[in-house]
Amino acid sequence: MSLSDIPAPSPPPARAGRRSAWWLRGVVAGIVLVAVAVIWITNAWLTARFSETTRNRAEVRVALYTGNILSELQRNSVVPLLLARDPALITALDVENYALTSARLISAQKEIGAASILLLDAYGRVVAATDRNELGSNLSQAPHYIAGLRSKDTVFTVTERDSGGFEFTYSRSVLLDNQVVGVILVGVDLSKFERSWSVIADAIAVTDSEGRIILATEPRWRGLTMDEALAVRSAPSAIRRALQATADWANEPPDAYVQGEAVMRIDSRVPFRGWRMTSFSTYDSIRERVNAVLALEIMGFAILMALAFYQLSRRARFQTRLFQRESAELRQLNARLQREIAEREKAQKDLAVAEQTLAQSSKLAALGEMSAAVSHELNQPLAAMKTYLAGARLLLQRDRPAEAMSSFQRIDDLIERMGAITRQLKSYARKGGEAFEPVDLRLCLSSALTMMEPQLRTRAVRIVRTVPRGAVMVMADRIRLEQVIINLLRNALDATRETHDPQIEILLAAGETARLSVRDNGHGISELDKMFEPFWTTKKPGDGVGLGLAISSGIMKDLGGRLTARNAPGGGAVFEMQLPILGNEARAAE
């Protein structure tokens, strides 16, 4: 019995149910995203539209209020001129008989609708008035009396009352034989407009040419500038600040704040003495209209969400029934799997024995590969040692021990190098090395050529070496770097063995990277893609095992560089090694 013989449970309905559930969840998420987008767009569009409508209405209202003020001022401006030419008033001032003057002023007030009318003699004493309580008062120091006394035309003055607010007065001197005998003062009642404006929710203020508020629905504003008036407000509570921040976010950016509430500001010029009227409209009506539409939209999306959740609940019940049926099938499958597991455990024991045998074979193969690598890398130093020993023997026979000691020192250096090579071959399985230091590539090249000197003497090969005058510093392991250069030179010698007039060109250049190129005029490379594979070689059996370039490529990777090969255009092969250049800053840090 095997796993393929065990019938699997029937998952397609469950998977279909899960797919449907995910589909419904996607619908719910889509509804939420669409609802947020629609509500956001609707709020922005309706707020802008209703704000524009409210602003237009406020502008029309300000224009109407401006006309009312101008009409009132113009209607009262002619009264001083008419009364200053009234013969009865002139006669009364001349003969100082004021028995009927107050009654005449009261009659004129009723016909014209002025706030108050006063008749003053040449000394500033009130001799007739629509308000009899004013009779006998001395207004000789009043600004409107002085202004009327000094001018022969009608003069308009704005005077601040001690009780608060402002008094608006037209004054004109009364002349008799071109002599001033009195002054007519006509008061203009503009405060009635403040009372009518206060019924409306908007705040309205009128400023004079100096920017001082002379009319306002907010009594605290009178006498202040507009900036000072807007700064007058009580400190709001934390809840009110939070609600205000929410309201400001939902509306367009407010023009100003009145009593801590965002408002829309409308400025209009009153064509009278440089006056200006400013109206402040709240956003309450705009929010009410926008919120009504948003409430309908939210209700519609809530209904869609409710339908989607109803479908999800139905799917959940259906999937629960499917899971219960699958659980029963899985219990039966579990019992069968227990029997299958026992059979598998027996097979695994047999497999473990086979794996141990295979592991032993792999170890033997690895030892063989390492032995071949050691023999390949030690071949060159051994050949050099043989040459130096023969030379030392000959020098000793000729009684030249000092020169023989030099050969022995070179043999000692080669023995040290062989020890370093064996230590490095042990670490080929891991990345990097531990003996990194600043190295001059020129010195490495000279040392490698010295190592190759015995072989170069046996061959008539022309060596062309091009190196810069300055040092070419890299961060590397000197022994391993020389090992790569020796492998490249040895390959070049082998490639030119059957070539007439063999030649090897060595080019060292320093730019963004350090580049060392070794070019020969041999037969070239037939298979570039296999060049750096282990145990691949074009040499005859016994001449090489195919590990030199593979080892050299691995060393260059450990040193942070790379080794490349290509065929030269005129024949032969070019091997190029690249290493990061060691700059002055890196050298100083080292």
Automatic annotation (TrEMBL):
UniProt entry keywords in alphabetical sequence: ATP-binding, Cell inner membrane, Cell membrane, Coiled coil, Kinase, Membrane, Nucleotide-binding, Phosphoprotein, Transferase, Transmembrane, Transmembrane helix, Two-component regulatory system
Coiled-coil segments on the chain, per record: 320-364
Enzyme Commission number, as recorded: 2.7.13.3
InterPro entries tied to this protein: HATPase_C_sf (IPR036890), HATPase_dom (IPR003594), His_kinase_dom (IPR005467), HisK_dim/P_dom (IPR003661), HisK_dim/P_sf (IPR036097), Sensor-like_sf (IPR029151), Sig_transdc_His_kin-like_C (IPR004358), Sig_transdc_His_kinase_DctB (IPR017055)
Annotated Gene Ontology cellular component terms: plasma membrane
Compartments, as annotated in UniProt: Cell inner membrane
Domain named Histidine kinase: residues: 373-583
Catalytic activity, reaction form: ATP + protein L-histidine = ADP + protein N-phospho-L-histidine
Topological category with respect to the lipid bilayer: Multi-pass membrane protein
GO molecular function: ATP binding; phosphorelay sensor kinase activity
Transmembrane segments: 22-46, 292-312
A Pfam family: HATPase_c
Role description: Member of the two-component regulatory system DctB/DctD involved in the transport of C4-dicarboxylates. DctB functions as a membrane-associated protein kinase that phosphorylates DctD in response to environmental signals.
The protein's name: C4-dicarboxylate transport sensor protein DctB
